[in-house]
Each structure stands twice: as C-alpha cells, then as structure tokens.
C-alpha cells in the first residue's frame, strides 16, 4: 500500500557557537503522495538537505510535524531509505556484499536475501560486477550500487541527497534516465534534493522550490510533461522559467531561459 508523507509547519533552528540562533528551515509544509517523485530545489545553503535529514529521522530536534500515513516520523527506519552524494560503499567489501549488508538484520532466510540482492543488482544494471570492489567501479556504477543498497529493504520512500551531483554531465544524464526507470519499476515514493533545475524537471511530477535565509518554500510547481521528456522542448523550458522565477533570480532567468534554445 502506498503511503502519504506530510511535512506540516516544520521549522529547524541551530544554535551557533556564539549562542545565537540560526533558522535553516522555516514553516515548511508540503506532501508527497504514495509513488510520487518530488524534487526539492534551491541554491546551496537554503535548507534542502536539512529538510531531507529531518524526513529521514537523522535529526529529531525541530518544530512542526512529519507524518507518514498519519504516524509521526521518529528516528531512522528501513521504511525510509537514503542515498547521499558520496556513495559511502565500504571499501573492503565487494559490490554484492555492500548491498547485502543492508539486509544483515532482516528477518529473511539466506536464500531470500540472496534472491533480493541479485534482483536489485540486476535492477541497477550491475550484473557481472558482483565481486568488484568500490575502487574498481566508476562513479556512476558506485552510485547505482548505493541506490540498490537503499532499495533492498523495500522502503516506502527513497530519499536522494544530490546523488548525481559529483558526476560528469554525460554520466549524470544517463543516471537520471536510470533513476527514472528504477522509480517506475519499484513504484516507491522518491524525494530528490538537487540544485540542478533541469534534473528536477526531467525526473519529477512536482517540484518544491526553497529560498534561503531562512529556508522557506517559495513555490510548489506541478510538472505535467509528456514522456519521454524533451529537455530542449518549449514546454520543458516553460517549467524551467517558472522554477527560476520562484527562486527570484532574474540573472538566472535571462542567462538560462532566453538563451536556452540557442
């Protein structure tokens, strides 16, 4: 059963070393329907990753409510998988063992764990690399392995904290297509944090735009584009303009929109 995630009036403040308070996220509210792909975009330091950490349960000190199917989110849970920009694979383990370790405490038989790991290695297109170590993998392959590891416990929601941010442009585009395919196959809700507006439009059904100081939601933009999405199309460009306008950055609008089709 798909489960709805609700973020209701969430505010996160930090105490600085001088004793003053810094508001990273202010009064954020939005929802994610079961099976929906939502992106959170904004400039660096606007509170995107802070918000994702709260949803993941990595930080419990905040105001407001975070509900999953009407139940408060408390602490980390296998129902909320997370993938970071750094793949965080253990260098002394093979690819297969790095994925298997996520099932260490799962109440499943050895045979069932073996099947699940094999299925997810296939899902991310890494058959034949089961015995490879992280240093033998490309950046894109390592991120695929990290995604497989996050999915083996069949989470309700997969949280993605700029997982493609460190990749070159061509690899990033290929992985965006792979991520979209995986989302369709798995049917899991995905929340992507990114500063790449084009990436958000290509992948998402909805984009949450956050402005900084303090981090607050500036807009919630529906992305209703035909598939496959054409990055150079006029409709894609129109959504892009909406996002940049919500970010209140006229320089970005002129630089990236007016010259978009040149």
CATH architecture label name? 3-Layer(aba) Sandwich
Q: What is the overall number of helices?
A: 8
How many structural domains does the protein architecture include? 1
Query: How would you write the strand order of the largest sheet?
Result: 6-7-8-3-9-10
Biggest sheet record: 6 strands, mixed
| E-strand count | 10
Under CATH, the homologous superfamily reads P-loop containing nucleotide triphosphate hydrolases
Which structural category do the helix and sheet elements fall into? alpha/beta
CATH class: Alpha Beta
Strand proportion: 15-25%
Please report the distance between the alpha carbons of the first and last residues. 46 Å
Measured as a percent range, the helix fraction is 25-40%
What is the mean predicted local confidence, pLDDT?
92
- Order of helix and strand elements from N to C terminus: EEEHEEEHHHEHEHEEHH
Overall shape: globular
Gyration radius (Cα, Å) is 19 Å
CATH T-level fold name: Rossmann fold
Uncertain runs are: 250-262
Describe what you observe in this structure:
The protein is of the alpha/beta class and 262 residues long. The protein has one domain: Rossmann fold. The strands form two sheets. A six-stranded mixed beta sheet has the order 6-7-8-3-9-10, with helices on both faces. The protein is globular. The N and C termini lie far apart (46 Å). The C terminus is likely disordered.
């Amino acid at each position: 059963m798909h489960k709805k995630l609700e973020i209701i009036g969430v505010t996160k403040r930090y105490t600085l070393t001088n004793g003053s308070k810094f508001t990273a996220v202010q009064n954020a509210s939005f929802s994610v329907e079961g099976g929906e792909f939502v992106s959170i975009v904004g400039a660096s330091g606007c509170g995107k990753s802070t918000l994702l950490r709260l949803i993941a349960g990595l930080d419990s000190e905040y105001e407001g409510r975070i509900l999953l199917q009407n139940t408060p989110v408390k602490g980390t849970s296998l129902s909320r998988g997370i993938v970071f920009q750094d793949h965080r694979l253990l260098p002394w383990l093979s690819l297969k063992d790095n994925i298997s370790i996520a099932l260490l405490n799962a109440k499943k038989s050895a045979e069932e764990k073996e099947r699940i790991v094999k299925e997810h290695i296939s899902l991310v297109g890494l058959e034949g690399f089961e015995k490879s170590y992280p240093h033998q993998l490309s950046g894109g392959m390592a991120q695929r392995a990290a995604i497989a590891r996050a999915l083996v416990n069949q989470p309700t929601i997969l949280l993605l904290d700029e997982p493609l941010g460190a990749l070159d442009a061509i690899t990033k585009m290929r992985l965006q297509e792979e991520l979209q395919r995986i989302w369709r196959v798995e049917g899991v809700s995905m929340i992507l944090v990114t500063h790449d507006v084009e990436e958000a439009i290509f992948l998402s059904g909805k984009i949450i735009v956050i402005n900084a100081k303090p981090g607050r939601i500036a807009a919630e933009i529906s992305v209703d584009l035909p598939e496959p999405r054409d990055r150079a199309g006029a409709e894609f460009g129109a959504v892009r303009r909406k996002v940049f306008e919500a970010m209140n950055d006229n320089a970005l609008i002129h630089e990236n929109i007016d010259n978009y089709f040149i």
